[in-house]
Write a structure and sequence with these properties.
Length: 321
């Protein structure tokens, strides 16, 4: 699998990375099998976060890479916590806290859960309006100097905030949503990151599964399913718009005898400025299928055709990953 340098850091990451949101609600055996399958098929970037399963995802990653730590680059995130009790109808509210004291505590907890001496890429999960970004990045720079993290990353930062962070320390990457249904980052963020040599990690490339084309009827997810909260694509009018897009994309996949999900993934990874595409998996088979997207590419003509189609079906949303 192709590897790309992450910004100006020393990290070289696979063009497909494993997103581990599903591992937060996965059994130990299944989680380990998913991570192992991803590694065996060429993935070296594993992205997790302290909030995924309230630490369970990090623990599963740690279990899975035991004995294989040298094969992987582990990225995790800080700054988002659950508050309150929540209910069966509504999830617990989120607290954003990027104060130096809090992220230092989170780092130590993540190191223990993952059972590692160093986090390869430590990322601010979401901006914290209550904490000056200079204080946050300053603390992360100290963590790096201490050898506890290898590179500083951010997630869900707009261009203005990224500029402020970059003045304090070298930012290796920004993790943001990007897909055929959400192309906002093309306007300012991608050009800025290209200019500053900041890597871009993409999440949500298949829109919570809707760009696989497997849903022919609107699904009814369990109330606890995060797709009810994160993605708007399963409700009207977005549902019908996405189905229209899929009808145009499916013939392209058919010509290559590949799944529609590969078209969505490859479209993202072939865009200028994108370093790695993070794709989640709920089974080892899905992990293997996702990595297979790197075995072929869309032609220039196909990319142009898809660009035209997707520009007519853009559905932008802010997600809480």
């Amino acid at each position: 699998m192709e590897h790309r340098r992450l910004g100006k850091s020393e990290l070289n990451v696979s063009v497909i990375g494993l997103g581990t949101v599903p591992l937060g609600a996965t059994s130990q055996a299944d989680a380990i099998a998913i991570v192992h399958k991803a590694i065996d098929n060429g993935i070296n970037l594993i992205d997790t976060a302290a909030i995924y399963g309230e630490g369970h995802s990090e623990e599963m990653v740690g279990e899975a890479v035991n004995g294989r730590r040298h094969q992987v680059i582990i990225a995790t995130k800080c700054g988002v916590k659950l508050a309150g009790l929540g209910s069966s109808q509504k999830p617990k509210p989120l607290i954003h806290d990027l104060t130096p004291k809090s992220i230092r505590q989170e780092l130590e907890s993540s190191l223990k859960r993952i059972d590692t001496d160093v986090i390869d890429l430590y990322q601010c999960h979401w901006p914290d309006p209550s904490t000056p970004i200079e204080e946050t990045i300053g603390e992360m720079a100290r963590m790096k100097a201490e050898g506890k993290i290898r590179a500083i990353g951010v997630s869900n930062f707009d261009t203005a905030l990224l500029k402020k962070a970059q003045k304090v320390a070298q930012i290796a990457s920004n993790q943001v949503p990007y897909s055929l249904l959400n192309r906002d980052i093309e306007n300012e963020l991608i050009p800025f990151c290209l200019e500053q040599k900041i890597g871009i990690l993409v999440y949500g490339p298949i829109g919570g599964g809707i760009l696989t084309g497997k849903f022919k009827q609107k699904p009814e997810f369990d109330k606890s399913d995060t797709r009810n909260i994160i993605y708007p694509y399963y409700a009207e009018p977005q549902w019908s718009q996405v189905q229209a897009l899929l009808k145009e994309v499916e013939p392209i996949a058919a010509r290559h005898d590949k799944p529609v999900s590969h078209v969505a993934i490859n479209w993202v990874r072939q865009q200028s400025g994108i370093t790695s595409v993070l794709v989640g998996a709920r089974s080892p088979q899905q992990a293997e299928a996702n990595t297979a997207a790197t075995s072929w590419q869309l032609s220039a003509e196909e990319l142009a055709s898809i660009n035209k189609i997707s520009s007519q079906t853009l559905v932008t949303t802010k997600v809480q990953l």
